[in-house]
Each structure stands twice: as C-alpha cells, then as structure tokens.
Amino acid sequence: MVPVPAESDRELFGREQELAVVAELVADACAGDGGLGWLRGEGGIGKTALTRAAAALARERGMTVLAAGADELERHRPFGVLVDALEVGASEDPRRAAVARLLGDGAEPALSGSGGGLRGGGEGGASLRGGGELAFGIGEALLVLLEELCTSAPVLLVLDDLQWADVQSLELLGRLAGRISPLPLAVLCGARVAPRREAVERAVALTAERGARLLALAPLDAAAAR
Fold first, then answer.
1. pTM
2. Which residues contact 144 (CB under 8 A, 6 or more apart)?
C-alpha cells in the first residue's frame, strides 16, 4: 500500500483503509496507470472529507485537480457536473470553447411556459437537439478534452454528490472507465446511497465491471468516533 502523508489524513479518523486506496489511485495515476473509484455511503458519513484528502495528496504530488459537485436543482442539465469540473465555458481555452459550442448547439429550447432552460423530465434527463448521436459526440469531445488535459500533468478528477448527477454524465463515466487505464488520470466519484437512482446504480455497476474500485463507507466505530 502507498503511505498517506500526515498532511492529508490528520483530520480523519477510522478511515485508514479508504485513505490507503485513495492514495494508491493517486500514485498509480502519477505513474501513468489511470483508475476510477467510488465512495458510497450515507449523507454526512465522510465522503467529502475523503475527496478533500485526495485533492490535498494530489496537489502534493504535482497533479492538476479538477472538481465539481452535482446539484439536485440541475440534475437535468446534460453533462452538467462534468462541464463544471472541466471548466467548459469558464476559460478562453479554445479546447473548452469548442465543447461549449457543441453544448450550445445541442441545447433544446424549453417548452413554452416552463421558465427557460433545457427540456427535462424524469430519470431520462434533459433532451439534446439531435438526440443520442449528438449526446455521443458531446461526450466524446469531453473525453478528448480530459485526455488532452492529462498531457500537461497527471489529473485528479473529483465528482461529488453524484446521487444528483445528470444521466449523460453518469453514462459517460462508463465510457471513461473503459479507456482510463493508459492515462495519468485518477477519478474519484462520491455518491450517497440514498436516494437510490437507477442511473447511478447502473453507472456504479458498469464502471466496476471495467475495473473501478468501490469503497462503501460504514459508520465509524466507537474508538474512531471518540
């Protein structure tokens, strides 16, 4: 196992095993062997603390840290959490601008009287003009952008609160898990176990089939709690 520096775990108790797995993901990514991990547990059990420890460890090793959390009120925004994490549209980087244009071209006008935004509804999420073909193309552009960002320095991508993530982002995680191995990239996904959503469970299962590590966070024992 890869040792975790004191700077990264000094505020965490009873999470030695989880910290060791996170540290291993980061170390493997720095060595050019990418991987994806899930932190699952109840709300408030410590998922965010572990992702912060991972980010601190990654920065100590010179990695680029990209992070975002899904928002319950934006769970129908296509690719929302990934767009936020990759800072698409938030910089003058032409690579990000190209993806932003694709998203803008694909935006489906809202129904009259719906108050604006993308057309949404149900577990299927918002629609994109052009349907599945365009969604696949936008997803591919996001994956290529992420791969290009890895050429400058190893990357840690942190995606938190994925129990609220849009379906397109969750589906793209499955594609990413299938091509992450040769990249200097670690992806850490945090999600509550409730509310239970089919799209989240499907993403967890598919990424696990492709090598993702699953960490179920149990409540701390009495000694760690003290």
1. 0.83
2. none
